[in-house]
Amino acid sequence: MNAKSKDALNLYYQWFGERARSLCGKPAVINKPSATHCAACGATGRLHSANGQAGTHSFCDVCVTVAGSYHGIKRPGRLGAGWSAVITPESAILSTGNEGSNGAFKGLPNTHVFNNTVQQSLIKCILSPPEPPFMLVAFGNSSPTVCRQLRASYSKELIYISGASIQRVDAGTVRRCVSAINDANVPQSLLAAATSSVLTIARNVTTGHAIERAKKTIANAEDKHPGITEIIRSLPLADTLDYKWINACAYAKY
Questions:
Q1: What pTM did the predictor assign?
Q2: In angstroms, rounded to a whole number, what is the distance separating the alpha carbons of residues 222 and 25?
Q3: Is the same domain home to 130 and 184?
Q4: Are 149 and 232 in a shared domain?
Q5: DSSP conformation class of 238
Q6: Pseudo-torsion of CA 192, 195, 201, 206, nearest 10°?
Q7: Are residues 47 and 146 located together in one domain of the fold?
Q8: In this structure, are residues 30 and 48 in contact, taking their beta carbons and an 8 Å threshold?
Q9: Which of 165, 198, 217 is the last residue of a domain?
Q10: Closest to 146 in 3D by CA, of 254, 59, 249
């Protein structure tokens, strides 16, 4: 586990600590001499496995909560796919699109549980992040190594989304571009056509006819919505992660 993962795990533990076991239904402590280290972070000490049975992997108090269904705890007694969390040293905001599951964690002190999809939760944090440091986690299914893929964010301008993979989002650019799109009231379909055409020209890996069509599409978009050319030139290319979040945030529906 590298230094950034350790820092993030420390922040996670700073908030959850011993309470972490409450998020996974308090799995039984295993008693098997061969299980000496947490499969996720390598910590020694108290380890857990599904129903107290030592399997391929065993986890410490904290890592067991982010290992998803790998440790065999069924929902709603765990944070798995469909759950997200915004974690600060003072509080945690948990979200799930499954309203029937959110009651499992409402008893935790300083924990706020909302009925939102993962996408909605991530968008809200990107557009209006808490004061750093904080963690934004999109929980998944079985993953014994997810703790090695945790990242803390120390700025509102650069936000890491932890989960099955680590997403590095230039949130400052996302918010600036979303504001420009919303101020100009650009239709989503028109923006998609124009940005796709800009990508075609920028990559220059297609035929001359395709490039000419792309230029015509951009010109038509400018005719329909004057000023859109200036906006799309300020955006990241359409095949980038930041553009994905610009598009998602600009046209989000709550």
A1: 0.79
A2: 56
A3: no
A4: no
A5: T
A6: -30
A7: yes
A8: yes
A9: 165
A10: 59
